[in-house]
């Protein structure tokens, strides 16, 4: 992972590789910080008494630790393994894997641009990380919105190359939200009017809307979009379209966000 700082900050979660295990603790290398050395005291390996430290850590193992203290003058980084829960571990490893992938994609960009990686990082890579937080975040944003770099003020022959690599290799993350419609229409054409109301609700420009029959008079609306705000907006619009139509044709409608 590309890091703009030489050392991690206290409280940060870092990916490490166990280098050497002793009875009093474990020495590790910080994968994201130029393989700088870190140390996990045996008291920070797990809660409770540790009889055999190798029951918890072993040489070559990839682990996620929390940074406790950093002494930049001595190059010391004290770490804790026990202060990282399973959710944090999975999330940090996933981010690390994504960033490794992003670095490979960045190499492709540099190759197509005709310059060395170091040159590209100096020219625009560092600024991208500063603006988006990470290379992967930049690639992901460009896959979602191809004008993302331009909107942030970036320009140059490398920009369309970066965007194309993002579009070709990154699948934007999708989120799904649900809600419920209750539609009734006592007129002679009530069933047809409800069907038309639901068809109108399924029409969306920036999201995928799916409606399922739950049980009279209830229907489940499922909206899939690129982010929660967009998904929630489309969910609300879909419900409003159905309710507006059914009311204008002699029926009643109600939207329920959650059961």
Task: Please write out the topology.
Blueprint: E1 13-22, E2 25-30, E3 36-41, E4 62-71, E5 76-80, H1 86-113, H2 117-132, H3 135-144, H4 148-151, H5 158-169, E6 175-184, H6 190-201, E7 208-215, E8 218-225, H7 228-248, E9 252-256
Parallel strand pairs: 3-5
Antiparallel strand pairs: 1-2, 1-4, 2-3, 4-5, 6-8, 6-9, 7-8
Helix pairs in contact: 1-5, 3-5, 6-7
Features:
OB fold (Dihydrolipoamide Acetyltransferase, E2P), 259 residues, Alpha-Beta Plaits, alpha+beta, five-stranded mixed beta barrel, four-stranded antiparallel β-sheet, DNA polymerase, domain 1
Q: What does this 3D model show about the protein?
A:
This protein has 259 residues and is an alpha+beta fold. The protein has 3 domains: 71 residues, OB fold (Dihydrolipoamide Acetyltransferase, E2P) (Beta Barrel); 83 residues, DNA polymerase, domain 1; 82 residues, EIF_2_alpha (Alpha-Beta Plaits, 2-Layer Sandwich), CATH 3.30.70. The strands form 2 sheets. The protein has a 5-stranded mixed beta barrel. Strands 7-8-6-9 form a 4-stranded antiparallel beta sheet, covered by helices on one side. A hairpin with a 4-residue loop joins β4 and β5. It is flat, with a radius of gyration of 26 Å. The model has no long low-confidence stretch (mean pLDDT 92).
């Amino acid at each position: 992972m590309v890091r703009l700082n030489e050392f991690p900050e206290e409280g940060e979660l870092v990916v490490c590789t166990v280098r050497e295990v002793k009875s009093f603790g474990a020495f590790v290398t910080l994968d994201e910080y130029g393989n700088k050395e870190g140390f996990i005291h045996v008291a920070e390996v797990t809660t409770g008494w540790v009889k055999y430290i190798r029951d918890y850590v072993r040489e070559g193992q990839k682990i996620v630790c929390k940074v406790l203290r950093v002494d930049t003058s001595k190059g010391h980084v004290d770490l804790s393994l026990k202060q990282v829960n399973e959710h944090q571990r999975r999330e940090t490893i996933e981010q690390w894997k994504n960033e490794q992938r992003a670095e490979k994609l960045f190499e492709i960009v540099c190759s197509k641009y005709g310059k060395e990686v170091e040159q590209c990082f100096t020219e625009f890579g560092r600024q991208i990380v500063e603006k988006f937080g990470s290379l992967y975040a930049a690639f992901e944003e460009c896959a979602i919105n191809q004008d993302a770099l331009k909107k942030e003020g970036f320009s140059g022959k490398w920009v369309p190359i970066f965007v194309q690599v993002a579009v070709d290799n990154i699948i934007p993350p999708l989120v799904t939200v649900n809600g419920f419609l209750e539609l009734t229409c006592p007129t002679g054409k009530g069933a047809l009017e409800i069907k038309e109301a639901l068809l109108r609700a399924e029409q969306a420009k920036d999201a995928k809307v799916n409606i399922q029959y739950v049980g009279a008079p209830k229907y489940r609306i499922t909206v899939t979009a690129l982010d929660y705000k967009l998904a929630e907006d489309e969910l609300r619009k879909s419900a409003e379209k159905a309710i507006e139509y059914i009311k204008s044709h002699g029926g009643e409608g109600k939207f329920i966000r959650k059961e």
